[in-house]
Amino acid sequence: MTITTVPLTDPGRSGGLGDLMRRRYLLRLLVRRELRSRYQGSLLGLGWSYVRPAVNFGVYYFIVGIFLGLGKHTQNLPIFLFAGLVMVTIFTETMTTSTWSVVGNGALVKKIYLPRELFPFASFLVSAVNMVPGLLILWVGAAVAGWRPSVLALGSAGLGLAVVAVLATAVALLFSGVNVYFRDFGQVVDILGLLIPWSVPMIYPWTMVRDFFGTGSWQLDLYLANPLAVAVSLFQRAFWWPTTDGPAILARNPKAEVPFPDHLTIRGLIALGVAVVLLVLAQSVFGRLQRRFAQEL
Amino acid sequence: MADAIVIDRVNKDFTLRHAHSIKEMTVRALRRQSLSERFRAVDGVSLTVEQGETLALMGLNGSGKSTLLKLISGVMLPDGGSVRVRGRVAGLIEVGAGLHPDLTGRENVYLNAAILGMSRKETDHCFDSIVDFSEIEKFLDTQVKFYSSGMFMRLGFSVAVHTDPDIFLIDEVLAVGDAPFQHKCLQRIRALHEEGRTLVIVGHDAATLERICARGVVLKEGRLAFDGEVADAVAVFDPDAEARDMEEELHGHP
Questions:
Q1: Structural Rg of chain B based on CA atoms
Q2: Is B41's pLDDT higher than 80?
Q3: Is A291 in CB contact (< 8 Å) with chain B?
């Protein structure tokens, strides 16, 4: 053996998310394991990933759209709703599953050294895979309603997905680490999961918030500072807006009102920047927390 | 020969937290009760292991030997001093920790091997040998949750001994399976030694440790109590155990 040439190293020093690139084979197996154990033995199998968003969607559509009459003001409300729902579901599902990812793999974390980022990141990947059918339904639905690809639509979709992916990964790292130290943190996450769908313009248009608090109010600024709210708006601009009469009206009258916050692309880029900063912070907090994972679990 | 493991005045403190939730912490803080206590599990241990050496790590329960092993594997990080290793470290630390009940034996071989740092190609290469060693060919495509505990352990052990580490850490796993399987395990461990790998073995069974290891280290309350020939280490380690047994008998409780 020629191992004498290998230098001495410190065991257990993590290179953070960068380490995951070197362990991507293991990451793939972990994601597959997660998907398998979640759906195996259930009657509908992978179909569950259609049922949950479908029920969610049905409830919002009938209560908000029909009973409360919001559908009268919003053209193609189902597409409007579903575009936001896809984004929110990726985020909240990552958040709730990743919170338990390190605790759930406690037996492994305590026995074998692995880059611990593997577990929350695998949770995010599983949620992302779960949403692929939802994205397909959204795309088909929009296409039926007259959606055609354009630079604006595809760019908005890409930017929106990037914001949600980075944001969800940041939250996954932070929450999975904190949950090791505080056993009732899961309760906090459950409550957040209830609030998040209402904190973004998914069920109602953002103009209701603007009209209530007034343009330039700090409440509105706060509302629009939420990267997830921006991501939802971007996704609506990508899939819902092209199916409405909006673009045609805008072409005739450039001063016509657009149903999105102004400078949405710039807001999207800022949201992405904020999400990246959050991810760097979350990684550094996780890096500190994970030093004592083995003894806390 | 170069050194494989260099442990320099390493300390490890454990914080025994009384509160594990936000609610408990608030309550204890309001009542001005202490939130945690600290104790030192490993205290100023220095140890150098040469490449190819076989080291027996002995000590009573709570003497810090498992903690020391976790410090070497990187599962835990030292609070003081340093631990450095040369090459890939793998542990037979509670085999089966990486097995997943919902996956079949075959899938678990790949998953567990990946957890222990093997690539797909490496696993393909020694797949037959792993299955052979574990003696579970017939149940390869059965979900692991239907395995007996013996089969479960054999599968975990078999994957672990087929990884290709430079340093091998073994924690009380020689009690796996029945006598023939134990014999096979010991043979495999000897073969690993002959290939020039460094072995660190934790155990209570003095006779087995004496057969495999050349050097013995005894830990006592987190400190290094003895370091030398394995036979002498056993002599240092054993009287303690006897004394404790007698004490337990006298007082009637552990």
A1: 20
A2: yes
A3: yes
Instruction: Give the distance from residue B64's alpha carbon to the nearest chain A alpha carbon, in angstroms.
Output: 13
B-facing residues of A in 103-122 (CB < 8 A) are: 107-114
Domain at B3-251, CATH homologous superfamily: P-loop containing nucleotide triphosphate hydrolases (3.40.50.300)
pLDDT, tens digit (0-9, with 9 covering 90-100), for B7-21: 999 999 888 777 778
Owner of token pair 């043979």: B187
Q: Is the model more confident about A259 or about A282? A: A282
What is the secondary structure of A190-233 as a DSSP string? Answer: HHHHHHGGGSSTTSS-HHHHHHHH-TT-HHHHHHHH-HHHHHHH
ipTM beyond cut 0.90:
no
Q: Is A188 close to B74, i.e. CB distance below 8 A?
A: no
Domain boundaries, chain B: 3-251
For residue range A82-135, list pLDDT tens digits in order: 999 999 999 999 999 999 999 988 888 888 888 999 999 999 999 998 888 889
Give yes or no for B35 touching A (CB within 8 A). Answer: no
Residue boundaries of the structural domains of chain A: 17-30+48-296
Looking at CA atoms only, how far is residue B134 from chain A in angstroms? 21
